[in-house]
User: Fold these one by one.
Assistant:
Number 1:
Amino acid sequence: PFTACTFLLLFFAALVSSTKLESMTIQHVLVPIVMEAEAKPFVDHLGLELVEGFFPPHTPFLAYQGEHHNCKVTVVTMGKDTVYGTGMDNVGTTSAALGTFLALSRSEADGNPAQLVMNAGTCGGFQRQGGGIGDVYLTTGVAHHDRRIPIPGFDVYGIGKLETLNPTTMAKTLGYKTGICTTGNSLDWVEKDDEFMKDNNASCKDMEAASIAWIAKMHDVPYLGVKVVTDIVDGPHPTQDEFLENLHSAAKSLQDALPKVLEYVTDKTGQSD
Ligand code: ADE
């Protein structure tokens, strides 16, 4: 029977779940970073070690673990393609979702579940949103810009908009920008993508955030995106040229930003929103 006590318990359970980050000590952060080149400077900087056998056989994903500020850090990269025989990084939503799902499941099975998914990587920025090359964004939400399903209900499902952890205070403290990140499986874009990016007020364009946030939401783990701009989507230069030109400086910038964000979220005084 529903007693006053049950209501009280439910009330406090709701309170705890809505204030997670402020009230709890984060002991384990999962950091999915799709490309090796994006992850390497950060992995080296923290002295994280490759964990053999972390993922099931036949999967290309790699996990690096260590401690930072008394917090366990697991960086996951999506590894290199062996299926198509290209040897390139497994970019895009399919591998990002699967790698993140397996890493979260493994962290649960190990009895030390990750309490925050901090997805780091590069993104396209928008001059119409005041973005510039090298800007660091903490994301406020995610959506897809290439899932067009013009059937009532499925249209909303396709866009897959999720509000994520509110990083406003953290961004102000650390001097970073905030904005919505929209995701698609192409580095370039077509007019329809741009319509969806505008409708969703995108400040960042990437190839995995919305799928990783979907997996995090499934596990009831908060998602935070940390994205560095390598190219300007609505600028004059071809995306691929700008991206390749700026990839390494962006990875360095991630190496600088990620420990600061990590220290902020693991700070026991809990200044996050
Ligand atoms: N990663 C870096 N720049 C990007 C862009 N313009 N689109 C998608 N992913 C990106």
Number 2:
Amino acid sequence: DAAGWRRACELVAAARRITVLTGAGISTGAGIPDFRGPNGVWTRDPRAQRLSDIDSYLADPEVRRAAWRSRAQHPAWEAEPGPAHRAFTELANSGRLRALLTQNIDELHQRAGLDPELVLELHGSMFGTVCLECAETGTMRAALRRVAEGDPDPSCERCGGILKSATVSFGQALDPEVVRSGQRAAMDCELFLTAGTSLTVHPAAGFAELAARAGADLIVCNAEPTPYDDQAAAVLRGNLDEVLPRLLSVPTVPNSSP
Ligand code: NAD
């Protein structure tokens, strides 16, 4: 509504340190479906969630084969960053983006020109691989080449351990270094803005809570309601490819304080 928009624009204009949390909804316009939206991967086929569970991945070679097949066909290989991604690059260019925490694994923020130093990939990236035994890292491209050449469940070339995309599955811990940086950015901002996330995946959603408790104003941009709407100073429901360029291009209020 109009009052929400006015409030959101005022907060964006006044804030000098903005921390952002994005989710799958930021990339649906770029052709990558989300999980829990009306057209989400899990909404259409709840069994797909099994591919994201570390225990079934470790226990079941068929789950691993399916996971590699789905990586090979992932829409992120073809996707291009859109207006929603570019809006954050512009915000960063204005010098006011403290950090951007993302649950996405598609690297579209970086490809939209956002400084990789500002991006905290909470759930990793699908363009890397990691050995679950010795932690050796590699590229998804190299692993998928081995799949295409006839090895449907490629193992670590160094130790023979189980190889996986460098993403965080259910049952796996987030990188503690990334979490700490995220917590610092959440507590060290005037405005915490969430975009395209259902705010139901923890610990990612907890950053909004942390920011609010540290005194930041909260703006929620999401098509559907989230558990944090009640705490938000403004909630914007429209399509992110329209909402974000409009919201983040508002002129900055000159800084009069010393
Ligand atoms: P989610 O699917 O739980 O929520 C996405 C939210 O975005 C939904 O509430 C939906 O209503 C909203 N949305 C979708 N398109 C929108 C649009 N154009 N405008 C406004 N709102 C829109 O996603 P989540 O909260 O990010 O959690 C899902 C998990 O899945 C994360 O762990 C993430 O790592 C992973 N994931 C990543 C990608 C990706 O990298 N692009 C894609 C799917 C899932």
Number 3:
Amino acid sequence: GRAPADGRRVVIVGAGLAGCLLATLLGRRGISVVVVERRADPRAAEPERGRSINLAISARGLDALSAVGLREQALSRALPMHGRMVHDAAGGQSFRPYSADGRRAIHSISRAELNRALLDVAASTPGVRLTFGRRLTEVDLVTGNLLFDVGGGQASTTADVVLACDGAFSAARRAVTFRTGFTVSQEYLDHRYKELTIPAKDGDFALDPDALHIWPRGSSMMIALPNLDRSFTCTLFWTSSEFAALTTRDEILAHFRKHYPDVVERAPDLVEDYQRNPIGSLATIRAWPWVHRGTGDAGGPDGGDTGGDDINGENGRDGNGENGHDGNGENGHDGNGENGRGINGGGGRDVGGAILALVGDAAHAIVPFFGQGANCAFEDCVEIDRCLDEAGGDWPAALAAYERRRKANCDAIAEMALDNFVEMRDRVNSRAFRARVAAEHWLERRLPGRYVSRYELVSFTTMPYARIPDRLRRQNRLTALAAAGVGGAAAALAAGALRATSRLPRRP
Ligand code: FAD
């Protein structure tokens, strides 16, 4: 049933993609929430001129958006991309559909516009209060005090529940970094990225808008996604030393003429873009646990050593199951389940100070090569909402369930995203890769719903990410046979084998 609010004061840090969606979901649940965002309200600012930055939204993101009634609006402002358009170094193009039936698409959407739409929905949700121009600087989980930088001055507020949706370089995560038992790592790629623009040509798209364009070049790679204004945003992935080695107009043009000849002729501002636009970095950030509690009666204000106790107390990660880790009633319905074995000795539920959960990129930033970071962050929000529902509104129980259910899934997509970089910049162009994709699509047509490629499982289903690698291992044997040209025999075998092992749900 619907969970009533339990009176805790809930603060969401960050009004980005995850923060806005989560605020809306909570508001709809009858929970009052304050959202604190560092930037000014982007809806009030002049619409940005110049670069439009887009992102690909697929089944998982759309599923989450439909939970707040935004799916159709998002789709109406997005451009479907039904496949990859691979550009070779001679300027030739070849199209590879993403799905066997050629009908499935991922959707290119303006990041700013999606954020504004989510802000609008959040702002119109009863119980949600958005505040801007406040940058979180400190969190004290013992007192529940949050400090903000407000245009040079300081402001503070208190919270019982802090939902950290403040992105890959989360200030909230920084605030718990030195707690005992907290592990965090950031793994940077040598590759960085720079955004470039292919503008509309004579009022029309200069490339096919129904594709995600890829220029695989081995050590470097460029991609381009279409925008509604008929431009394309290109992202060039390259190492920082290589970026730095190219500075003058002549060097830049010579390089692009050699490796990206069809881009040079379509990008009149290429040199200016290249020289002016910043270089972004790419990291996988892993953190654990995602949920932290202060305790009111133990330890010092640093929360350091109290943290270690908490970690086991609230979530029983050691597997001793005081919170029912088998997934059926992990939540301590009596409302003090979070005290677990009574470590804090304080007894009452609110003696435990505030509880903080990392959400979205703050918990698990991933590299962008599968186009899943936002999709995955949205899934987090939906999972928190679901866990709250199941836990009857009990925050500690709900957040414990959230991190337990999501961790393996987020780890899985982080790995797949890293792996997809190799596929995109290299393998996509190889004969073997093309043979594999052709074989996969052939199997998919022969075995609809039973044989599904990794790309499709990630992008076109909502199967938990963590189940995908296992499913693929079983399928791979079959692909090998089919790619070897065994044809009908492979199909028969595949059908039998998959039937035998098929405990898997059909593709939705
Ligand atoms: P963010 O969107 O980063 O939002 C964080 C919010 O918190 C921001 O509004 C920020 O201003 C605010 N904030 C930060 N610090 C503070 C503070 N101290 N106090 C208050 N507020 C604060 N994902 C996809 O699904 N598909 C794609 O195609 C895709 N392409 C990508 C391409 C690139 C080059 C990159 C870098 C990422 C891409 N992603 C993509 C990933 C996606 O951008 C992120 O996963 C997504 O934005 C995460 O959402 P979030 O709400 O967790 O964080």
Number 4:
Amino acid sequence: LSASVPIMVNDVSGKMGNAVATAALARGLQLVPFAITGPKLGGRHVIVGDVDVEVIGAEDRLSVMDKVQEQYPNLIVVDYTLPAAVNSNAEFYVSRGLPFVMGTTGGDRDKLMETVRKAGTYAVIAPNMGKQLVAFQAAMEIMAANFPGAFAGYTMKAVESHQKTKVDTSGTAKAIVGSFQRLGLDFAVDEIELVRDPKEQVERMHVPEEYLDGHAFHTYRLESPDKSVAFEFQHNVCGRSIYAEGTVDAVLFLAKKIQEGAEKKLYNMVEILQEGSMR
Ligand code: NAD
């Protein structure tokens, strides 16, 4: 299936776009040699593997898509752009009947879902495409739903380290803490410790220096009231490959659904995980 799936990555010159294009080629997908970027930002070429991708400003997107859709009728679009572009880009893809995977965060999420549902376009929308991270988060929620209060009386320390440009608390950490609250812990989201100082990230959190500008290290440590029992839940993510690989999985999943003519059209990452391996 993978060799027959052309993928267009908007915008391939961004950090995530580039990682996805690289992962897609490594997995045998066909990379479309055109990408759409923001208005007046076009006119560049980005080389990914052996593909020379022409990056075109949004003002010319109509003529570009006419050409691309004619040449690659089965293409799937991947969007990693900016929160401000989420809704207008989705509306554009929908208007062209283009199946797409939206990894970009932010924008008006309700409006985004509404746009896609109304149009009945095939799409995967997920603010976190890191498959194993999504599985971990879902597993904690399943534990909380099935065993409410299992950790009542325990105390917790939660610490998360991310690149220093990330100012807010990690959304994943907030969701995990929500699960722990349902498991009985008396712990508020604002008690999550944020590590943003590069020196502390290397010395205390053991983040490799080359990943200071892109990592997600989270540790949740729980202790029983008498301190005789401790549990630790930890994930240490370096770089972007976990998100890029999950995005390629989402593209292949969508290609399969289109091929099958599935009635359901809009998917999230949990639904992709539930289908099992797609490789
Ligand atoms: P980036 O700044 O490196 O890349 C964004 C790119 O989008 C730039 O190349 C920019 O020129 C381009 N762009 C701007 N306006 C555009 C428009 N209107 N149309 C098309 N392209 C436009 O950012 P990044 O680190 O690659 O992150 C991109 C997005 O992906 C962010 O919203 C980020 O939060 C999100 N993200 C999601 C996941 C996930 O798992 N879903 C993982 C990592 C990052």
